[in-house]
Design a protein that fits this description.
four-stranded antiparallel beta sheet, single chain, 2 domains, Arc Repressor Mutant, subunit A, 11 strands
Length: 213
């Protein structure tokens, strides 16, 4: 998968941007609301803005030579898309599609982002740190795809989901899934049918429990 990574996961703007700077930006650039299936950008589009996820969920991926959708990641609150423009990239190498209704996005012009990176140290340091973190995550994901079977890949995916999105619930962890089994299948390199069968197996084993389906 030789694709440029145009986003940072878990960059919480509410932590790294001081309230004054962020609120001041929102006065002239109010949040935009998107619904499920809306696209923020497509492959090949010119990069004009960074997209800051205030609420909701966004899917990042690309289409292979056969036209099949390949999902790279799902991004949520406090995460950034398009930051590679700060390093000179002119066009998006992936698409970004909203997967949750009422997803709120704050657009930040590339020029303004460069100004922040230059003048606001926590912002630039966080971006730099996340480059290394992203490379480590990609390496781990590649190792999982290469050396683990489908069941182990799904288990590792669920562990990551619990760590990143989970909240304590009784004796375990609760995760609100905003993605489909097809999306999960694309992430772990298997079919939707296999994911469905594996979830049934994990539920029968008492390892997971589904609500509201």
């Amino acid at each position: 998968m030789n694709k440029g990574i145009w986003f940072f996961e878990e960059v919480d703007l509410y932590d790294i941007l001081c309230p004054y700077k962020y609120n001041d930006h929102l006065k002239s650039h109010p949040l935009s609301c998107y619904n499920k299936t809306d696209f923020l950008f497509m492959e090949g589009d010119l990069v004009k803005d960074l997209f800051l996820v205030a609420e909701g969920r966004v899917k990042v991926g690309f289409y292979d030579k056969e036209g099949n959708e390949q999902v790279i990641a799902f991004l949520g609150r406090g995460e950034i898309l398009g930051e590679k423009a700060l390093f000179g990239e002119a066009r998006h190498q992936e698409f970004a599609q909203v997967v949750a209704d009422r997803t709120q996005i704050c657009k930040l012009r590339v020029e303004k982002a460069r100004e922040l990176a230059r003048d606001y140290v926590p912002f630039s340091l966080t971006l730099t740190k996340r480059v290394g973190d992203r490379m480590q995550r990609l390496e781990r994901r590649l190792q999982i795809l290469l050396f683990k079977d489908a069941r182990q890949r799904l288990v590792e995916f669920m562990k990551d989901l619990c760590r990143d999105m989970g909240t304590p619930y009784r004796t375990g962890v609760k995760v609100m899934l905003e993605i489909t089994q097809s999306d999960i299948a694309a992430l772990i390199g298997t079919s939707r049918k296999t994911v469905s069968l594996l979830f049934t197996d994990l539920e029968d084993a008492g390892l997971v429990k589904f609500f509201g389906r």
